[in-house]
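From the methods appendix. Each design record in this collection lists the tokenized structure first, followed by the designed amino acid sequence. Records were kept in a plain field format so they could be parsed without special tools. The example shown here is representative of the layout used throughout.

RECORD:
FOLD TOKENS (160 positions):
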């Protein structure tokens, strides 16, 4: 029984890659069920529970996780959650984006758009978006930059 685990950082095309792998190998795509920085609510709990049951169930499945997800939703996770994920995975892949600057810009735009409710996280931003250079926007940039580099460092630590 195939269980694929994809460990990636944001804006690496991990959602697309999971979809591709699920189609290629006939896996149930759990998506990204284990994260949730907004805290535990009914939706987060349902997504986590369904993702957990599907991933650890009898059918072949794939799930995506970011390093920060291992710290979120602690009240939902069993003890040794990460070890359980790894030991039950038959195929673990890490997805890295070579162009970190492009990844940072993409994460910043996604964060800006999402924060201001101008679109969804996975929108295709073909239209020109003007983002003002204000102290608030500069603060968001620094926050996104620290977050992304922390995620990259955490992923590198998991790899080693």
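DESIGN:
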């Amino acid at each position: 029984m195939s269980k694929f685990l994809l460990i990636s950082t944001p804006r690496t095309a991990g959602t697309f890659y999971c979809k591709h792998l699920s189609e290629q190998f006939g896996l149930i795509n759990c998506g990204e069920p284990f994260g949730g920085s907004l805290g535990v609510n009914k939706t987060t709990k349902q997504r986590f529970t369904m993702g957990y049951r599907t991933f650890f169930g009898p059918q072949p499945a794939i799930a995506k996780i970011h390093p920060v997800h291992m710290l979120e939703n602690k009240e939902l996770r069993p003890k040794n959650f990460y070890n359980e994920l790894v030991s039950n995975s038959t195929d673990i892949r890490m997805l890295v984006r070579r162009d970190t600057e492009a990844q940072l810009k993409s994460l910043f735009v996604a964060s800006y758009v999402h924060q201001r409710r101008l679109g969804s996280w996975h929108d295709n931003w073909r239209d020109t978006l003007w983002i003002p250079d204000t102290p608030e926007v500069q603060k968001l940039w620094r926050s996104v930059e620290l977050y992304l580099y922390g995620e990259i460092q955490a992923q590198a630590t998991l790899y080693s």
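APPENDIX NOTE: The helical segments are 14-25, 42-55, 81-87, 100-115, 135-159.
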